[in-house]
Write a structure and sequence with these properties.
Elements (H helix, E strand, L loop, with lengths): L5 H14 L5 H13 L3 H6 L7 H15 L4 H5 L1 E4 L2 E4 L11 H19 L3 E5 L5 H9 L4 E6 L2 H13 L6 E5 L10 E6 L6 H4 L4 H4 L15 H10 L3 E10 L5 H10 L3 E7 L5 E7 L5
Parallel strand pairs: 3-4, 3-6, 4-5, 6-7
Antiparallel strand pairs: 1-2, 7-9, 8-9
């Protein structure tokens, strides 16, 4: 479509996506065109008559083709918003979901209380990926410090980059570790969004997830609970007095994860649902200090 206007290119992208079976074709077309061309939502509406250059047209065409092949919009653009952050993505990281912001928002009051009472709040994010949870907490709770642990060196490189891009690098450390294996010291909050998909289900997930999210971040073992068992077993040795352990969970895992934690000496002190009404975040303590 040589010499096409922005409005024509947007309409063509929407048609291609719809023809390719993309459910939210109009929304995805706007996101891709505006993201690739670095245009605001206002500019998309007001600059419709602008004729695109060949390089711009080519970049949009490539992005649309990737979306038709089921690559998620934000992976194509290379970044996405999370909490107040803009996070770079990489093939080694799970794409942060809005549901995970529920876990962050749940922990903010606890972290602020710990900081006010003790003068510090040290956070450990296990399986940190992009760093989303830890970095969002550091952004929302100035004065806190955090360690992001992950088995993937590529994920840790992304997390470090995100800490720098979002202005919290001075209070964040990335550690290559299989859960607690290389983690030292004690923490006020241990948090994780671990892999929790039942192994037999992973192959049935939507293409956007199955083909583009790292399996390491999805596969929770035969029953989806392997990571929770590993974290529960080691958390007590790395938790300060009155410290907390918090998780994101699958919609049907509240009772099972609570039982695992109870077996390891923890009591559930809060359970929070996401906007869809599904159980999403759990908080545990060694005592009822909170």
């Amino acid at each position: 479509m040589s010499g096409a206007t922005l409005a024509e290119v947007l309409a063509a992208a929407r048609r291609q996506l719809a023809d390719g079976g993309i459910a939210d074709a109009a929304q995805d077309a706007r996101a891709l065109v505006s993201g690739v061309l670095k245009l605001s939502s206002t500019a998309i509406l007001t600059e419709g008559a602008r004729v695109l250059g060949a390089a711009e047209q080519s970049a949009v065409d490539a992005a649309v083709a990737r979306r038709v092949a089921r690559e998620p919009v934000h992976r194509i653009l290379g970044h996405r918003a999370f909490s107040r952050l803009d996070l770079a993505l990489s093939p080694e990281t799970l794409e942060p979901r809005p549901d995970t912001e529920v876990l962050v928002d749940t922990l903010v009051p606890y972290a602020r209380k710990i900081l006010a009472e003790t003068g510090g709040c040290r956070i450990l994010d296990l399986g940190t990926g992009t760093g989303a949870i830890c970095l969002a907490l550091l952004d929302l709770v100035p004065g806190a410090t955090g360690v992001g642990a992950d088995l993937s060196a590529g994920a840790l490189e992304t997390a470090r980059r995100n800490a720098d891009l979002n202005g919290v690098a001075d209070c964040f450390e990335a550690v290559e570790s299989d859960w607690f294996a290389a983690v030292t010291g004690a923490f006020d909050i241990i948090v994780s969004n671990p892999p929790y998909i039942v192994r037999s289900v992973v192959g049935t997930l939507d293409d956007e997830v199955r083909l583009f999210d790292p399996i390491l971040a999805l596969d929770g073992g035969e029953d989806g609970l392997a990571a929770y068992r590993a974290i529960a077993a080691g958390a007590g040795d790395h938790l300060r007095e009155n410290g907390l352990v918090a998780y994101e969970i699958g919609y049907d895992q509240k009772d099972a994860v609570t039982a695992i934690m109870r077996e390891n000496g923890f009591a559930r002190i809060e359970a929070v649902a996401d906007l869809g009404g599904n159980d999403r975040a759990l908080v545990f303590a060694k005592s009822a200090a909170f």
